[in-house]
């Protein structure tokens, strides 16, 4: 069958591939065509697996790089000037010399780009040459090849702990259940394992995989960058179609875990793989200063234009004064004199060339260097380093460091950002009775245990049992084990369960801890303990530290309510330590790989009550009951969690009763609205009272066989659908998820991160408005807001909620102006009640943001000290950020940790990702990534302030420097008939900007420390300077320009009057000026520098020394190398003249005296 | 509590690290805690207080005022005499010469000016010619030369640089020296006579060597093929600059001062920075210690008037000046030093007064910060 007619298949392939616009991609096996030439391969149109991320090739490097560099305005300007030099009428001294600066700048950038590109090339080569196994028809087995040889349609086998070379449709695994685990840490940083299933129908149990028998055609979507979405079907030769989704796709770059080997057909290769499509480089954002700076560059252009105009007019008028041409006016080669108007017109361009330095082209290069330096220092800050995660602050955007110093509005996510997002099971309510767990789930509630035991003893089912079963199985938690080559998990937790049963786990824990301690001291370097540690780390639940600490403390009291570290680990202690004990005793134990911390908390809670999930495969879930009995549920379907439904369900067949039961868990609202029978109101009430905790409700539904079968058919159809798959799946899920019976509810607490209130208060004192946008319910959000001092108890809090129905619209409308009136009047009337808090929920928010209300809403928000938005969708989050950013024209910062914050992070001026529990999507989208919310304080108040003031001062200084220097030349024009003569040697002029005066401002921009970090942290008010852009205003710019004018006047006229009427030559006249302006410029910076370190001294003194050495060497060597300036011996002559020093000293002092 | 938990963490991190790779050293991403990377380098933070600013003012004042006085006195001791011989006035003896002018006139126009020195000039006297309103710093003028030709390069002699246009070739012969600067070389001849009280005129001897920079004369300017002493032969295929009366090899009879290394020529080629300038013409050397170089009395200046300045309303002057370590007479720098010094001193006094009067109050308010 495989190869009945390759020709037909070939033709198929041909026609299919002929049209590249097809919405789907069709992949057939390459094996039948192995011997054919390349152009006859069916999959030849798809990209190979070799990747090339380097932009340039050797031969195309120069043209391509130049082309890219010329996208910059500044470079074009400079090249334009260089070309202007070659126009004969402008009479450039040495056109070739004018090319030097632009060439140096272009070359520097090109070298930088080239080096980066070469690095990319090297990593590409390394990747491309990684070995992998491809099936070969000739040898009839998998042979070792390189990654770059992998083509679409090949069969590839990946062994455990190997990296997947391309996007592979999983067709076979060594696991009898057809599952394969992969770790996506390389892709998104999540260390939890993800389960992948073999495409249904291919899981040939136990048999070796035989690719040569694969005769189906794979049809899937065209390559896209969605890591969580993939759909397609396999079409058998008999036209049978089997659908598959993302859970059958092994992604390139991930690592296979816990599975001996996995094999499949390559569907996307190389650049078309999902991970490669997701690789977008750092985003380009423009900082506020840069935008402002660009307008100032324009001012400089205008200034330059006027100066040139003055030169041109002056020259024309000057020429007009002569009745006949004097001997020093040189006619053109024919002996004719240019008419004065035309000469003036030409002079305009000559002037542009002379005064071109006015536009600080080196500014852009310097700014880039400075930002690189700033980023270096930010990432090196040990205070922003997180010991637990071994992570520094990450700067992903390279060019907005100074925006950190100008933030006015902070939008924060709640979960995981303000809070730990490490869930702790705090209370549950079953059958209307509430059971609290005040401290610690390790100590289960006695009453509840009794209840469970009673039910266990009497009947095999009951609401309590169902509740805990739901807790244990209704999740997507994976069970993993110590060893990579996993056999059937055989859990040995008998001792632990027993201990729990008597509710006396504490003693057991301390006991096991002691064992561990003793063991550790004896076999410190021995393998087992370390292996265990390593494995803990792999588990990725962040438990390593808590458990380790636990070992150390040993005898310390466990239930110390004030110990934060203790509390963090509450939910995990029992399992961890018992696992540890188990690990040491050589037996196997369970470790859960949860996608979300809620799930982890719930499953650990269930375990504490004796309901331990032992294993999960796609088809079975095994749970151990408190009485050691194993229940193996057949999993019929899982309706996974999504943010619209806000619930997940698992449909299982009960092993004893054979009933089909659906367990559903979800947010309270998502469950309540779908309850079949009206339950007792007090239960709902009690859930609502649990403010501050995340309430998760569990419910159950028994489905009849017929009902399920009918539904299942619809579901299958939806699964294999290509179009509108999501909508149809949603529909089916909604259909089955109705009329539940409520089992109970759990309250999960999410603790605040350390020093969140302090951070918020510091940010407030720094003049930032802090908003919290959360998807959580208002009660929880308000509770958190109070505990993190976002709202104070004496604050006036307005709560807008749509529960007041349609009237709300008018109500808001009416209340907004009124409230804003109150807001305005209140600070005046009573200072104490001056703070207004606003709490608004999602639906109301969308109403408030409708066109007619939006102005009022913004106005109201301006008067509020704190705004809390609850139940908002990710889209709304970004809409709020955009609204504030656009309406109020403020700098916004968004900080979040989850995928739902990505929109917000991207919408804000500065996006900060917290790399926490919920994966890395937020970090991937962010400009800066931190690990704790408290780091924000230091990042903004210290580094933001520094970066801002450094860069602002440096930019101002750059403008000043260039204007001061150029004006020297400009003043000279009044004494040379506006003929654009430079009294300074051209080379020295170029060197002046490139070498003598470039290092000090760059160092200034990187290392200046105007205020120490401790002062900045203790006085957050200092931050306001950046918020109001006080470091860089238009006025500062003009003051700097005026200062430059003054200094250039001094630097020109003191030497002028000194040498006026004497026999001084042009360049001998220019040398003291050059020296004087160097001193002035350097000393001007020296006055600006507030703190001097050794580096400062070296660079400042070094710059001056370099100037003298270069100038001396240059004027000693250059005899007639640079006509007409002939610098020969001028510097030496000048330096032998005492007048030179006297002029230098006087001028420098006078120029800087006003400062 | 805090400290203990911290150290516990650190130890933790260390252990997990070593366990991670089974004993091989693993690098954590913890940044180095060095003073440089943590931006904690020892820094000197100068703070401008009355204690540092006031002494600075006084020191500047105290240093500048003596320098200024020294400069001023030195400048005043320099004796300088200046006479304008342009001849724009009808009464001026050079009026006729200035009116009838052409570059090519073969008959030299002479005029004589009389002047008297009130004070004797004691040391070596430098004689300058001064031009005003002559823009030797005009961009195109400055460019119009060929340095390699002047450096004795044979090829440049035959093929002068393009920059010399339109003074590059004349009648298909390369001009030597080419360019506008050379072409417009100052060619007046000045002679100085001392008139005895009894009426006899004695010519004052000039030294015409040593007026150019040593480096210019010996390194920068060279005659082509210096092995050939016969300059006429060397310059045989070249034309003289259009405005010149004599070719370059006839500038002087002294072979050490002829051709491109003629010092008058070198001096002229060093273009002046400002439109009003002077250039060293001759040096009158002191004869002995007994008699002054130029005694008090009457003198006559005999001018061979060749150089036209009327087209640009220029002025021509003859300047006699003694010289000091600070060069020519210029009181500006001295006055400037005295002024700046005084201002600093004055400001210092004022600030000191303010500081003393209000200082206590300021101090008390400063301390909380």
UniProtKB/TrEMBL annotation, chain A:
ATP binds at residues 413-415, 599, 641, 665, 774-776, 871, 877, 900-901. The chain crosses the membrane at residues 74-91, 97-115, 297-318, 343-365, 972-996, 1037-1058, 1064-1087, 1094-1115, 1135-1153. It comes from the Eukaryota. It is an enzyme of class 7 (translocase). Its main location: membrane. It catalyses: ATP + H2O + phospholipidSide 1 = ADP + phosphate + phospholipidSide 2. Its cofactor is Mg(2+). It is a multi-pass membrane protein. Residues 40-97 form the P-type ATPase N-terminal domain. Residues 923-1155 form the P-type ATPase C-terminal domain. Mg(2+) binds at residues 413, 415, 897, 901. The active site is at 413 (4-aspartylphosphate intermediate). One of its GO terms (molecular function) is ATP hydrolysis activity. GO terms for cellular component: plasma membrane. Its EC number is 7.6.2.1. GO terms for biological process: phospholipid translocation. It is found in: Membrane. Belongs to the cation transport ATPase (P-type) (TC 3.A.3) family. Type IV subfamily. PANTHER family: PHOSPHOLIPID-TRANSPORTING ATPASE VB (PTHR24092:SF79), PROBABLE PHOSPHOLIPID-TRANSPORTING ATPASE (PTHR24092). This is Phospholipid-transporting ATPase. It comes from Cyprinus carpio.
UniProtKB/TrEMBL annotation, chain B:
PANTHER family: CELL CYCLE CONTROL PROTEIN 50 (PTHR10926), CELL CYCLE CONTROL PROTEIN 50A (PTHR10926:SF17). The chain crosses the membrane at residues 47-73, 332-354. Residues 1-25, 145-169 are annotated as: Disordered. GO terms for biological process: phospholipid translocation. It is a multi-pass membrane protein. It comes from Cyprinus carpio. The gene is LOC109047260. InterPro entries: CDC50/LEM3_fam (IPR005045). Belongs to the CDC50/LEM3 family. It comes from the Eukaryota. It is found in: Apical cell membrane; Cytoplasmic vesicle, Secretory vesicle membrane; Golgi apparatus; Membrane. Keywords: Cell membrane, Cytoplasmic vesicle, Disulfide bond, Glycoprotein, Golgi apparatus, Lipid transport, Membrane, Transmembrane, Transmembrane helix, Transport. Pfam families: CDC50. One of its GO terms (cellular component) is transport vesicle membrane. The keyword Ligase does not apply. This is Cell cycle control protein.
């Amino acid at each position: 069958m495989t190869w009945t007619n390759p020709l037909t298949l070939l033709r198929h392939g041909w026609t299919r591939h002929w049209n590249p616009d097809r919405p789907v991609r069709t992949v057939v096996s390459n094996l039948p065509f192995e011997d054919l030439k390349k152009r006859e391969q069916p999959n030849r149109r798809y990209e190979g697996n070799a990747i090339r991320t380097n932009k340039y090739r050797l031969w195309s490097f120069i043209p391509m790089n130049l082309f890219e560099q010329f996208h910059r305005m500044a470079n074009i300007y400079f090249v334009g000037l260089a070309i202007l030099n070659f126009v004969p009428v402008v009479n450039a001294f040495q056109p070739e010399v004018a090319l030097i600066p632009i060439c140096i700048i272009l070359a520097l950038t090109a070298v930088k780009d080239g080096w980066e590109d070469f690095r990319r090339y090297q990593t590409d080569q390394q990747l491309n040459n990684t070995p992998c196994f491809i099936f070969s028809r000739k040898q009839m087995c998998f042979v070792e090849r390189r990654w770059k040889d992998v083509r679409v349609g090949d069969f590839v086998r990946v062994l455990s702990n190997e990296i997947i070379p391309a996007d592979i449709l999983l067709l076979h695994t060594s696991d009898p259940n057809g599952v394969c685990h992969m770790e996506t840490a390389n892709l998104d940083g999540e260390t939890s394992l993800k389960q992948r299933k073999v495409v249904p129908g291919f899981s040939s149990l136990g048999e070796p995989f035989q690719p040569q028998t694969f005769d189906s055609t794979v049809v899937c979507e065209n390559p896209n960058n969605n890591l969580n979405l993939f759909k397609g079907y396999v079409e058998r030769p008999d036209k049978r179609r089997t659908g598959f989704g993302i859970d059958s796709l092994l992604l390139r770059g991930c690592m296979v875990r816990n599975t001996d080997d996995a094999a499949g057909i390559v569907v996307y290769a190389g650049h078309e793989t999902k991970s490669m499509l997701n690789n977008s480089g750092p985003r380009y954002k423009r900082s506020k200063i840069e935008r402002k700076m660009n307008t100032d560059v324009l001012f400089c252009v205008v200034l330059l234009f006027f100066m040139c105009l003055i030169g041109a007019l002056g020259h024309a008028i000057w020429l007009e004064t002569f009745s006949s041409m004097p001997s020093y006016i040189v006619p053109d080669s024919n002996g004719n004199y240019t008419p004065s108007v035309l000469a003036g017109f030409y002079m305009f361009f000559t002037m542009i060339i002379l005064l071109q330095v006015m536009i600080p082209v080196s500014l852009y290069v310097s700014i880039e260097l400075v930002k690189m330096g700033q980023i270096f220092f930010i990432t090196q800050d040990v205070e922003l380093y997180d010991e637990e995660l071994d992570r520094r602050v990450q700067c992903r955007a390279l060019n907005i460091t100074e925006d950190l110093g100008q933030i006015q509005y902070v939008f924060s996510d709640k979960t995981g950002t303000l809070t730990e997002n490490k869930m702790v099971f705090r209370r549950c309510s079953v059958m209307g009775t509430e059971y609290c767990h005040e401290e610690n789930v390790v100590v289960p509630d006695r009453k509840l245990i009794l209840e469970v035991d009673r039910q266990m003893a009497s009947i095999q089912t009951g609401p309590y049992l169902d509740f805990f079963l739901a807790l244990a199985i209704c999740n997507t938690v994976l069970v993993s084990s110590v060893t990579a080559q996993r056999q059937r998990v055989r859990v040995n937790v008998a001792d632990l369960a027993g201990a729990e049963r008597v509710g006396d786990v504490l003693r057991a824990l301390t006991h096991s801890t002691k064992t561990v301690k003793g063991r550790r001291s004896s076999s410190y370097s021995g393998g087992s303990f370390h292996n265990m540690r390593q494995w803990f780390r792999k588990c990725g639940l962040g438990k390593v530290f808590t458990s380790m600490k636990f070992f150390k403390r040993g005898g310390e009291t466990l239930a110390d309510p004030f110990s934060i570290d203790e509390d963090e680990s509450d939910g995990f202690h029992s399992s961890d330590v018992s696992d540890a004990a188990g690990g040491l005793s050589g037996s196997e134990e369970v470790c859960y790989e949860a996608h979300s911390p809620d799930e982890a908390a719930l499953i650990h809670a269930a375990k504490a009550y004796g309901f331990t999930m032992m294993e999960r495969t796609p088809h079975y879930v095994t749970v151990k009951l408190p009485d050691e009995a194993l229940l193996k549920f057949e999993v019929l379907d899982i309706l996974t969690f999504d943010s619209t439904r806000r619930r997940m369900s698992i449909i299982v067949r009960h092993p004893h009763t054979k009933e089909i039961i659906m367990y559903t868990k979800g947010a309270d609202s998502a469950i309540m609205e779908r309850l079949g029978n009206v339950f007792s109101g007090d239960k709902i009430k009690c859930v609502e009272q649990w403010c501050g905790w995340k309430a998760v409700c569990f419910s159950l539904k028994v489905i009849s066989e017929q009902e399920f079968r009918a539904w299942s058919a619809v579901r299958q159809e939806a699964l294999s659908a290509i179009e509108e798959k999501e909508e149809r799946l949603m529909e089916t899920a909604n259909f089955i998820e109705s009329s539940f019976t409520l089992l109970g509810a759990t309250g999960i607490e999410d603790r605040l991160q350390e020093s969140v209130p302090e951070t918020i208060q510091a940010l407030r004192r720094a003049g930032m408005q802090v908003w919290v946008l959360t998807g959580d319910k208002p009660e929880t959000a308000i509770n958190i807001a109070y505990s993190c001092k976002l709202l104070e108890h004496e604050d006036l809090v307005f709560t807008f909620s749509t529960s007041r129905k349609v009237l709300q619209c008018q109500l808001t409308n009416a209340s907004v102006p009124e409230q804003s009136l109150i807001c305005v009047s209140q600070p005046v009337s009573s200072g104490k009640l001056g703070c207004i808090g606003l709490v608004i929920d999602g639906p109301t928010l969308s109403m408030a943001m409708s066109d007619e209300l939006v102005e009022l809403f913004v106005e109201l928000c301006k008067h509020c000290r704190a705004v809390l938005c609850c139940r908002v969708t990710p889209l709304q989050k970004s809409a709020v950020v955009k609204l504030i950013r656009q309406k109020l024209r403020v700098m916004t910062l968004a900080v979040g940790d989850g995928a739902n914050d990505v929109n917000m992070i991207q919408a804000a001026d500065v996006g900060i990702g917290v790399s926490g529990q919920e994966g890395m999507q937020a970090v991937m989208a962010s400009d800066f990534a931190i690990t704790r919310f408290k780091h924000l304080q230091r990042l903004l108040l210290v580094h933001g302030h520094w970066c801002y003031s450094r860069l602002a001062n440096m930019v101002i200084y750059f403008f000043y420097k260039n204007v001061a220097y150029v004006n020297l030349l400009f003043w000279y024009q009044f004494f040379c008939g506006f003929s654009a003569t430079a009294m300074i040697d051209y080379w020295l002029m170029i060197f002046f900007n490139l070498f003598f005066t470039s290092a000090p401002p760059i160092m200034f921009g990187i290392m200046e420390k105007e205020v120490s970090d401790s002062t900045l942290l203790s006085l957050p008010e200092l931050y306001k300077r950046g918020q109001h852009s006080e470091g860089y205003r238009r006025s500062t710019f003009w003051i700097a320009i005026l200062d430059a004018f003054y200094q250039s006047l001094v630097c020109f006229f003191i030497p002028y009057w000194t040498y006026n009427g004497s026999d001084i030559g042009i360049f001998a006249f220019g040398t003291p000026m050059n020296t004087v302006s160097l001193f002035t410029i350097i000393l001007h910076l020296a006055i600006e520098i507030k703190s001097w370190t050794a580096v400062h001294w070296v660079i400042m003194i070094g710059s001056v020394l370099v100037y003298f050495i270069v100038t001396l060497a240059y004027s000693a060597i250059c005899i007639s190398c640079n006509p007409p300036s002939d610098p020969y011996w001028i510097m030496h002559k000048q330096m032998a003249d005492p007048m030179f020093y006297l002029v230098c000293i006087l001028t420098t002092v006078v120029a800087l005296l006003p400062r | 509590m805090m400290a203990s938990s911290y150290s516990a963490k650190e130890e933790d991190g260390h252990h997990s690290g070593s366990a991670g790779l089974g004993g091989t050293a693993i690098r954590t991403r913890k940044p180095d805690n060095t003073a440089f990377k943590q931006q904690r380098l020892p820094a000197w933070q100068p703070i401008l207080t009355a204690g540092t600013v006031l002494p600075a003012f006084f020191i500047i004042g105290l240093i500048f005022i003596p320098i200024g006085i020294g400069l001023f006195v030195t400048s005043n001791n320099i004796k300088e005499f200046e006479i304008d011989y342009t001849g724009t006035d009808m009464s001026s003896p050079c009026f006729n010469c200035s009116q009838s002018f052409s570059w090519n006139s073969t008959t030299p126009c002479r005029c004589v000016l009389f002047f008297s020195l009130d004070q004797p000039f004691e040391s070596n006297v430098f004689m300058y010619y001064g031009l005003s309103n002559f823009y030797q710093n005009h961009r195109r003028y400055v460019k119009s030369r060929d340095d390699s030709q002047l450096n004795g390069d044979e090829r440049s002699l035959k093929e002068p640089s393009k920059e010399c246009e339109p003074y590059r070739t004349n009648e298909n012969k390369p001009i030597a020296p080419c360019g506008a600067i050379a072409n417009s070389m100052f060619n007046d001849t000045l002679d100085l006579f001392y008139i005895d009280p009894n009426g006899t005129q004695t010519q004052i001897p000039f030294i015409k060597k040593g007026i150019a920079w040593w480096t210019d004369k010996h390194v920068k300017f060279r005659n082509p093929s210096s092995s050939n002493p016969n300059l006429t032969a060397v310059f045989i295929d070249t034309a003289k600059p259009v405005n010149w009366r004599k070719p370059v090899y006839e500038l002087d009879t002294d072979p050490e001062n002829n051709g491109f290394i003629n010092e008058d020529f070198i001096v002229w080629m060093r273009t002046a920075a400002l439109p009003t300038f002077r250039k060293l013409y001759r040096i009158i050397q002191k004869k002995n210690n007994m008699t002054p170089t130029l005694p008090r009395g009457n003198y006559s200046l005999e001018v061979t008037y060749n150089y036209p300045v009327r087209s640009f309303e220029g002025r021509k002057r003859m300047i006699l000046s003694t010289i000091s370590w600070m060069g020519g007479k210029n009181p500006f720098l001295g006055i400037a030093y005295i002024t700046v010094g005084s201002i600093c001193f004055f400001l210092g006094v004022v600030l000191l007064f303010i500081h003393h009067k209000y200082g206590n109050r300021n101090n008390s308010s400063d301390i909380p910060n």
